[in-house]
Amino acid sequence: MGAPKYVLLSYDEGAEAAGEDGYEQTWALCQDADDLFADPPPPVRETYELLGCTPEGALRTALARARADGPAPLGQLILETLDKRGGGVDEWWLEDVHVLGDRPCARDLSLRDVTVEGSRSDDNPLDYPQCPPLSPGYRLRGANGEPWGGCRDLAHVQEDRPEQLEPPLRLLGCSPRGALRVALDAGEEDLGHVKVVRVDSSGRSVQAAAEGELRAWIPSARGPGLVDLTLDPWSERPPLAAREVWDLWSEGRPSEPNRWAGCDAAGRRFWLSTALANHPHTLPDRPPGTTYHLDGSHITDPPGLFCALGETVNGPAGYFGWGWDALDDCLRGNWGAAPPFTLVWHDADVARACLGPAPHAPTFEEILALLAERHADVRLA
């Protein structure tokens, strides 16, 4: 039998949600898996109507272009929900918005009903914004807070879409044991719920891969006594980038720095999730006043910045934040470094040139400001 890449653990959703320990049992070692990796589908683009709209700024410009030439790009659109006094309550975002057109508002001919198309932001607290009683509607703004007017209501234009069917996950060359072995020998149809975990060559857990329900099995061509299992996952599948990252961790936690540097942006983002999954929370912070040296030669995108910071503080494959808010938390202590500390940033010009404005991503100057605010003395080298 080849070295297993995955372990199947018994899964109890209630026990996991309650934070219980020791309920997981090893049900199988698996040599490999088919149809495990899949990038999430692109964001669903949906159509909305800004009812009773008074367009201003870039929205008014895009609307004029849409009238003349067809759908016009607008970018990110923020709808700020107003209370009955006109004060802001909540925000709701649409990404990659295009203005499709407009028509006179049936309730007030001095206003317009503007039709837009866009994708709901993953950061939205709700699937659909809710106005409080007696609200005058929404204040419209751009990504940087630019005023784009307002609207009295928002309508979602429903569209029928075929349901996306995903193939089941096939676990290959499995050696069942425990309750799973008993269920297979008894010919039971209900094989149970499992968690699939990626392991390294020593059998140590690297990261959870999937959760779901086992529903079928066949004898495996990979060896006598082995079976191939079919699993219907209810969790998201690991992205395609996970394959490369897990291969880099296949011999255990990498001991050399910058193993992440050859990954593209998607691979670096997944590297951060793997580093977080393997972060030793029991280790104390290094004392205040410590000096850290940041290798900036590979910081060519935001994920690269956080990969490099993780290794600076916590060694190769270390973790120290995966994004803006997570970095802010780490800078407060309990993640390896106790403030205040000194950060010597080598090859800082690489990051200065590459970390430009991007949605939900900090700029080079914003990173420096956050570090200074959290009592990190940054010295550019």
Automatic annotation (TrEMBL):
- Organism ancestry: Bacteria, Bacillati, Actinomycetota, Actinomycetes, Kitasatosporales
Q: Which InterPro entries match?
A: Barstar (IPR000468), Barstar-like_sf (IPR035905)
Q: What is the protein name for this chain?
A: Barstar family protein
UniProt similarity note: Belongs to the barstar family.
| Organism of provenance | Streptomyces sp. R08
What are the residue boundaries of the Barstar (barnase inhibitor) domain, all occurrences included? 291-373
